[in-house]
Design a protein that fits this description.
heterodimer, A: mainly beta, four-stranded antiparallel β-sheet, 10 strands, 0% helix, B: mainly beta, seven-stranded mixed β-sheet, globular
Chain lengths: 113, 113
């Protein structure tokens, strides 16, 4: 299938290890952040979100951390599995009524069996 | 399948032809979005509907592009007089009244010959 991961930063992780994917955002007005996973030939799949009044949120095997001081977002995946291999995008929504989501540069996660 | 559905999945056409894509959102979602994604990039916002009203359009949406959502359910995106630069993945997303998170379909891959 066609890859969405061309020319993207790549993170290679051994199966079973934890993965950390980082994202920097630029707009201080952003108040909602989302992580999406995109597999080749498919649309982005929602993983986890966080609002700006929080600094940490946990899901199943995933944790998102938000540092508003340095405008940094991270996605931690515990016990990484081969099925986690994909491109991961962080996205932000800017307060003010507009509904569009702005995507950052993706990171390709490669899980080594 | 209760997710966002897009049709066709692939479209190959000659430069100068018109194309139309369809999106069926998640049934209880009243918000619908169109995005465009090129290889190696994150999706870029094109336009947004709340029910049948088109509330925002990106500058990326030239006058050759038109989107409709006549009954507030499915939506169509038409591109007239296609150009090479229109080759991309066109993604549709939907969300509930709260706006987030947006759930994406698997897109329509457009190739211009």
């Amino acid at each position: 299938g066609e890859s969405v991961g061309l020319h993207l930063p790549t993170l290679s992780v051994q199966e079973g290890d934890n993965s950390i994917i980082n994202c920097a955002y630029s707009n201080s007005a952003s108040d909602y952040f989302i992580w999406y996973k995109q597999e080749s030939g498919k649309g982005p799949q929602f993983i986890i979100d966080i609002r700006s009044n929080m600094d940490k949120r946990q899901g199943q095997r995933v944790t998102v951390l938000l540092n508003k001081t340095v405008k940094h977002l991270s996605l931690q995946i515990a016990a990484t599995q081969p099925g986690d291999s994909a491109v991961y995008f962080c996205a932000e929504n800017i307060a003010g009524g507009y509904q569009k989501v702005t995507f950052g540069t993706g990171t390709k996660l490669q899980v080594i069996p | 399948d209760t997710g966002v559905s897009q049709d066709p999945r692939h479209k190959i056409t000659k430069r100068g032809q018109n194309v139309t894509f369809r999106c069926d959102p998640i049934s209880e979602h009243n918000r619908l979005y169109w995005y465009r994604q090129t290889l190696g990039q994150g999706p870029e916002f094109l336009t947004y509907f709340q029910n049948e009203a088109q509330l925002e359009k990106s500058r990326l949406l030239s006058d050759r592009f038109s989107a409709e959502r006549p009954k507030g359910s499915f939506s169509t995106l038409e591109i007239q007089r296609t150009e090479q630069g229109d080759s991309a993945m066109y993604l549709c997303a939907s969300s509930s009244t709260g706006g987030q998170p947006q759930h994406f379909g698997d897109g329509t891959r457009l190739s211009i010959l």
